[in-house]
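Q: For a teaching session next week I want to show students how multiple molecules come together into a single three-dimensional assembly. I've collected the sequence lines for a complex. Could you give me the predicted structure tokens for the whole thing so I can convert them for display?
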Amino acid sequence: MKYIDEYRKKELITALTDEIRRISRKEVALMEVCGGHTMAIHRFGLHSLLPANIRLISGPGCPVCVSARQFIDTAVACSTLPGSILATYGDLIRVPGSASSLEKEKATGSDVRIVYSVLDAVELAAGNPEKKVFFPGIGFETTAPATAAAIVRAKQENIRNFFVLSAHKIMPPVMAALVRDGVRLDGFIAPGHVSAIAGTEMYRPLADESGLGVVVAGFEPTDILQAVLMLVKQLESARPRVEIQYRRSVRPEGNRIAMDLLDRVFELKDDAWRGLGVIPLSGLKIREEYAEWDAERNFDLAVPPSDEPGGCICGSVLRGLKTPADCRLFATACTPADPVGACMVSSEGACAAFYKYRR
Amino acid sequence: MNGMEERIVMSHGNGGVKMQELIREVFLRHFGNRTLNEQTDAAILPADGQTLAFTTDSFVVDPIFFPGGNIGKLAVCGTVNDLAVSGATPRWISVSFILEEGLPLRELEMIVSSLAEEARDAGVEIVTGDTKVVNKGKCDKIFINTAGIGTIREEDRGIGFGRNISPGDAILVSGTIGDHGMAVMNARESFNFTLPVISDCASLNHLIRHVLDRSEGVRFMRDPTRGGVATVLSELAVKTGMGIDIEEQALPVGNAVKAMCEILGYDPLYIANEGKVLMVVSKEETAHVLRLLNDYPLGRDAAVIGHLSGDHAGKVVLRTETGGKRFIGALTGDPLPRIC
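A: Of course. Below is the structure for the complete assembly, covering every listed component.
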């Protein structure tokens, strides 16, 4: 298939891995901070193509996985409000909260529906004026502008029964937090879609302060391997910096229209990350001007604080400190069919990828 | 979990791990017997010197009309194929309808006429049936159950069990994978893809008979419906304790399905088929069986996709198009409910 096959050509891949092998001397750990990268790396079996001294570790880049359990509990609370429809991206359906999940609420009669676009949720609200339609907004700079656009549209069209529960987050603060936490890393494979929206300038402070290389990568096997090669070159020549591998989509200035939309609707707040705790100014909260579409401001959705499930090491997996195989629940108590931790349930989660492709 | 009453959730019906759990922990626990415990596509039953295959299937596909077929055609193909992959010649089927109050008679008639046509083409006789009507909202338009009986020749009796398979045997698929699941999904969801994704919904009994009559090399067959090719392979590996090697490059996937899967993030290996058979064939007969499949339009895109192996017992290993390796497991979570 055109525009896909070119990026999966075996000859190109072999050329890239040969070159990596040729110049790579040091033991290095590179973190991919995007769930899409995690999946691609596993799906194409890239671990098996790299030399043993290069280790790829998965970071906190899966939106479902980094959402605190309390967020799921709050989404469940929305779904049980009388006269509500909860419209969500499919990934959230099976994520276990502390006592229930959206899938289980659906089975007991809540109206939970999967949508492929947040705009479908707005249309659902327009078509069902007697209902309250809730949309749990998850994801980073990639999906947040779409949620912002939906809120703006709801305002323009005077749709007053559409409510967003925002768990949107931004990427740079968590990358910096990992470095501050002392996670042993030699470079970042930075998220391609996030950077297509938000640009690459945002990584500069991190690169300058930590001395780590940041290479923004695409999602095809040649993209990821080329990004690895670029990072290896940086490391071997001791010149770490911010570079773009994914040039066909990413410009340093990003997508101004999307970012303006995001700024118009959201402001930064301190936010809780699963396994990482509260990271200052890392989450997106709906601005006062759009308060009418904010689920939390309009309904009493208070749920008790929730601890992580016993034995689950999602937090350490998300920080790249442990691999899924280190968890005693992995593939025994915690499987994709009966997940304990979020990393197992999301298709982009490190545990799900590990379970599906490498176990 | 966590003290909440366990209930049926959608993933209990997806053909994957969760459904297997339900079958094992509820149905087999209460019904278990020697025939049922085999968990073959059709029950293989000795009857007065003759061997019969018996199977049943219910159809709840949404929407009831989709490119390439409708719920009526599907109801015949599903049951005919379960019999055919067991090595049987499908003979008689039953058809039962659960109809929702308010269903336009015109739609019912369209469904019934294509059901009759498919049965005629497949050479099976509809010999009994039942009709129920429920209040509006108590089912969704129309649900159909079919059951079927086929006869099995002495020499084909082992095929349903797959007991003769051994390392070195080849794995063939009769054509492109993922068409049905993606066609139904495209028809149901409002993606507005202008792609020609058409369900492969078809009765395979004539194609399979053509092969079985001319080769003794077929050792096992399955129709990879819900859960897709990956789930069938994974169950086969677990059941036989053998390893399976699959070449990603060899998998026949149509361009439209490939594009849809790329955009939506699905793996065609896990998407349902309704007109494909997966065959395990002896090494010596592989080329011959492939040619036989190619004789028929339904088998035009047939391909050898891998083989049984003595290594990595119980696991399916996919050699990716990039040359990397990864495991393939059974389907777990499922974003595609009600595709059949």
